Structure formats: C-alpha cells, structure tokens
Amino acid sequence: MEACEVVRLLVNKAIVPAEPKRRGNPGFGRVKAIRILVYARLKKLDNDTQIVEHLKRHPWIAKTLGLNTVPNRTTVGRWWRRYLSLLEETFINIADMLQLIEPTKAVIIDSTPLVDLYDMEARWGHTGRGKFRGFKLHAAVNQLGLPLRALVTPGNCYDSPFLPKLIEDLETDYVLADAGYCSKRNINAVKEMGAVPFIADNPRRKGKSYKIECNEFLKKKRYVVEQFNGHLKANVLGGCWVRLRGLVKKAAMVVAGLISYNAEAIRSLVAGEISLKSVSKYWA
Questions:
Q1: Backbone torsions φ then ψ of 133, nearest 5 degrees
Q2: Mind listing the pLDDT tens digit for each residue in 243-271?
Q3: pTM of the predicted structure, to 2 decimals
Q4: Dihedrals φ, ψ of 108, to 5°?
Q5: β-bridge mates for residue 115, sequence order
Q6: Among candidates 144, 183, 134, 147, which has minimal Cα distance to 163?
Q7: How far apart are CA 35 and CA 14, in angstroms?
C-alpha cells in the first residue's frame, strides 16, 4: 500500500465528521488539509513549497489524497496554524486505534528538546546535558516506543506538571518516568487511573513522605522512550520544526509527524512486526 493510500485510509477513520456544506467556494476542506499535512511528514517534505511541487509532479498522489487541484504555498502555510487542534484530535484517535492492535502494558514519559536558536517564541530551557534554546516535546509512549499522547511547549516549561495530561484517558498497568516527574500530585494521578507508578526519586526531595523508590523495572524500560526521542527527531522530523516560525505552527508539524509515525506503526503491526526497530525500517 502506497504512503498516500495509508494516510487517506487512517485519516478518514480518525477524523471528526466533515464540515457541513456552505455557500460559496468550498475550498479544500479540513479532511483534505489534514491528509496533505500528514502526507508531507510521511514523505519528509520540510516546507510548503516542497509540498506543492511534490503534488504537482505526482498528480496521481494528489488525486488519491482527494484533490481536484493542488493548493498554493500560502494556503498550505495557513493550514499549519488553522488545523493544530484537529491534528491533535486526529493523533489521539489514531493512537487509540493503535492501542486496539497492541494493548498498552506500560506508559513511559519523557521530554526532549527541539532546539531552535532563532525563533522569537523560543525560550531557554535545561536538560541533563545542559542549557538549550527552543521548545520541548513531552511524550508518553507505550512498551514498543510508539507515541500515545504528546504536547509541544516552550523550552522553559518544567516537565512535572504535564504528566497528568499525558496519561489522560489511557489504560495501562504501569507508568514510568524520571526524577523530573517526581511529585505527590503525579503519583496520585497515576494511582487514580489504576496503574502502578514507577517514578525515579528526586534527590532534592529525599526524605519526603511521598518518596518512591526507583526499581529495576524503570531502569530496564527507560531506553524505550529515549530511543523514540532519537528516532523521531532524526528520522521522522529531521529538524523540520525550524522551517516554521511560532509555537503553533511548530506544534502542528510535530503532531503531523507523530500521526505519520503511528500510521507506519499500524502498517508494521498489521504485517506482524512488534518492535520500534522494525517500524524504523520504513524511514530508511
């Protein structure tokens, strides 16, 4: 199955109902817009001009995506800002489909920097490797390293407050996170969802009543989210977030990349593959 066919099938299944018909020029519609934005990340088209030129060179792909005409560059540029919330909803729906194929046994949470030195909305943040300027991707992945929930924030946002949002509406046996998420609020949020929290102890809070001991299970599964972060940034996104300006547009492009990531994961799982390494071969 070609990439454009995978995108059309999964987006059609995950998208919200189409907009009601209205008078005047119907335009392209949000469903077709989402198909194009996701397909662009699947094919590593890093800017709006590349997207338009690619569709013009391959009219059969444009037709498969449901287009009668190819949009111009400025139209595609507006979609990144206009359809962020719809992209996020589509991502969640496809992630839920993924869980039907591969039930979630463990959720591993982490953040990774999206470095951008020149965006006016970029902020200075900190990681274990030092300071950086840019944005952050906060993600929750399953035991195979496939994304289930994600948020993009400025780089100066602290990790801990986002854990409850990242596990919202998920069903799992365990939730794993590093010391940056160690708080009584987060531990209680994990317990309320019926899961067991494995959150590394924050040395600065040592001795507090909510201290939780990090065990071997966390150490063994930690690599999964680190592998996901590296694979996503190097092979799926490829630094594409620096092509657009502003948090909203960057977040839209990252979420479109996550949708394409899970689209390939579903195709891989249906084919009988069960590891992130096997999914990665589609991006070689």
A1: -115, 130
A2: 889 999 999 999 999 998 988 888 888 77
A3: 0.87
A4: -115, 130
A5: 134
A6: 183
A7: 11
